[in-house]
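Quick one: co-fold with flavin mononucleotide.
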Amino acid sequence: MSKQSFKPGAMLNPVPVVMVSCGSGEEANIITIAWTGIINSDPPMTYVSVRRERHSHHMIEESGQFVINLCTQKLALAADFCGVRSGREIDKFQNQSLTPGKGERVSCPTIEEAPVSLECVVKEQHRYGTHDMFVAEIVNVQVDEQLVDEKGRICLDQADLVCYSHGEYFGLDKEPLGRFGYSVMKPKTKKRLEAQKRQKAAADKRRRAESQKEQAAKPQREKQPKSLKRKKGDTKNRQWPQGQRRQKSEAGKGKKQNPKRSRKKS
Ligand SMILES: Cc1cc2nc3c(=O)[nH]c(=O)nc-3n(C[C@H](O)[C@H](O)[C@H](O)COP(=O)(O)O)c2cc1C
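Sure, here it is.
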């Protein structure tokens, strides 16, 4: 393989993309973060690197707390939005119809719609050229009950998580290429794991069928008469979510964001 040299850059890919909630009450905010990772197993330690000009920066600095909410395919659009609009101008929870949940060990909210929320307490703050790195201990982890199997194991493969690579969001492939240590696995272990996998696939299928049955049993919403349905471009009957009009005028302030620029600036 012949390679070409490029100027030094943050070319580590793929990276996680997470929705970090911070602040509290009326001031609660969400910032999308790609510069994050695990730095120690026991105690579990993580970090988020935040530019000093972000609205969230002072919230994390002052409270010493934040929550890392893992991002799913369903949440990707909201994650992108929370990464290109500032909490200075809008309430991102409200705008994206996200529900603030209760942190057990921190006072800032979790995001209810996220399958996993890591409650973090800041231990150190390091200042670098563009970003401040908040090193934190993970003091509690909340996981959607739907992702916990009957043996109490977390089935993250069911969570539809996404990652971020070179400016783009990607869903994870359902089928893993292998599991930890698969390069040196004994044939006997391989056989046992394959049997487990088949059992799990059957259980997942049953679970899906049950949830489809439940959905079908739910009462259907009444059909709206045609005359009341909104036509394309008709803003007259539009139901604005609370506060959105304010956001439109305040957030817009004439300046349009260049999506390419905001994509590059992590
Ligand atoms: C995918 C993605 C990843 C991002 N990663 C970071 C990051 O690691 N650090 C950072 O300071 N900003 C990052 N940003 C930008 C902030 O999320 C963005 O400036 C946001 O609007 C700040 O919100 P706030 O002003 O309410 O804090 C990222 C944006 C996107 C879309």
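If it helps, The longest strand covers residues 131-143.
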